Amino acid sequence: MSDSISMYQASVPVFVRALRSLKHILKKSETHAEAQGYDAGVLLQARLYPDMLPLLRQVQIATDLAKNAAARLAGVEALRFEDNENEYAELYARLDRAIEYLGTFTPEQIDGSEGRAIKVPTRNRGDLEFDGRGYLLGFAAPNVYFHVTTTYAILRHNGVPLGKPDYLSGN
Description:
The protein is mostly helical and 171 residues long. It has seven helices and two strands, in the order αααααββαα. It has a two-stranded antiparallel sheet.
């Protein structure tokens, strides 16, 4: 057994797990809202602070980051999503599409991408430039976790009974 971890192992399965966890906590929030007698849709516009993006955008960004990271590491054009979701069912479908898309990548496509030059366009800072390892470990993975964690925090702040096992539930 090798003691090293591959770029594929550190990316695709990690992103799939994070997105499955995200789907789980969203389902739990929808069920909780229904049990409490309020429209779960209000949670989709919830924020931790007025200048933050709402929960809906957190989910969209997490899926974009995961699918785009795998594509960039593989050196292919990423599948594009429209960002037109407005309800839970549409977010679940988006998460399923992203997970399915991640499943199309093979270790052969991603392993060896440690040195691949990767550019990430940004709105305000120009292009960010990385090598594959720096991109995965210093940008893509932390950003996926940030947006999944922010979604969790928004829901927890709004009274959804979530705990660490929910966050780590992405089996």
